[in-house]
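Lab notebook, bench 4. Still working through the backlog of constructs that have no structural model yet. Next entry is a single chain of 472 residues. Request: give me the structure tokens for it.
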Amino acid sequence: MLKKNTLALLCVVFSFLGTMAANKSNNDICSDAVFLRRASIAVTGRLPKPEKVKAFLSSTATEKRSQIIDELLDSEAYVQYMTMRWGDILRIKSEFPSNLWPNGVQAYNRWIYENINANKPYNVFVKELLLSTGSNFREPAVNFYRAFPTRTPQIFYNNINLLFLGKRVSDTEGSVFFSQLKFKSTKEWKEEIIYLDYQNDAITQSVNLPDKTSVFLKPGTDWRATYLNWLTSSQNNQFAAVMVNRMWTWLMGKGFVNEPDNWGTHNPPTNPKLLNQLTKDFVQSNYNTKLLLKNILNSTEFQSAQHYESHRLLAEVLVDALSDITGIWDSYRSRVPEPFTFYPVGTRSVELGDATVSSSILDLFGRTSRDVSLENQHATDINDRQVLYLLNSTNLEQTIRKSPRIKQLVDNTKTVTELCHEISCLILGRYATEIELKLFNSYYDKNKLNRKDFATDLVWMFINSTEFLYQH
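Model written out:
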């Protein structure tokens, strides 16, 4: 490995050239390479595979972008990634403050996975989540109500309004809708039953919904249903708009309303006309989440060369990308002893499903703690510690040197130019440009490197580049 200052200088030069090359386009629409990488990461949290890059870039099919969007949305990786994103805001975690324990975490994640895989209508998903009762192991959705250190009707009501109406401040009157919820343990280890206590019927009363409509809470009925029927109604435009805005944020990096859980007159949407149209289409589609995502992905806004909001890769995406590049995977284990769990080799960080299970590199790059339901818990800025790790980590250097994936590329290519193209496709999702090839060949000749050392330096330089570290 060459001296760090030489490599750092080359990184600076390459980041500039690479960013210019990636953004090169004949009009306001991004290049095919940028589109493929952008869509792959946004939908699946994964870099596009080199063979997919080559096939896509060589294709002359006029519908190839819409076809790849359909392929990504129908993939297993999409379901896994969206399960992780929902797990982040639903606070899925074994230990404090959620204290769901591993069995509850596993059941809850599986329930979310199956709903996303089935593309269940969003309004139905929310109602089934929030009307759930029963065992936390056998009726996984009830874990929603267990994931709080303090379980009070007001806490439940506040969190529901935060997630599904984007409101950070709630009234106190509406908490009565969730006042029947009770919890009891069983003889099975860590099992808990969530049930409705109808003895509270003694306090039945007329209550105002958030839109000031007055409703009467009938004895012997689930009062949550009264609120949720209003919440998920097609007449409640904000319920659908908040979901549209959240999906826009996940795909685009920044929402119409930013942050997506901070709605109000103090924070109006930047493009209300487009938000309203997408919301109208979402409701008319029967809250079809996949169709909503497809519409956004096919839009000129998502495919823009100029207006896409550049943002650093999420911690899980970055760590998994490094593993895909090197072919060497981190090992994960649960520190919770009931049951103590070792994850199989090759488990992706996107698949962990439990914020209690982590690693030093995930923590370094800002993996969410899942302690709150706010989107801003994701840390996506580059800080000094992260830069020092990428440039100076002995562990990262050894991982790259030992990489079977890089060795295979060295062994299977005949020229430096071919090797540069292969590494560029693997890490950046595009071929190296002519200017870059001149720079890389000059670097190779000047320093009298063997091909393995050159490939190691090139990989290290690529992963330190802005083009790799950012979704753009």
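Notes after review: The beta strands are 134-135, 181-185, 192-196, 206-208, 214-216, 311-312, 470-471. Confidence is low (pLDDT under 50) at residues 1-5. Flag for follow-up if needed.
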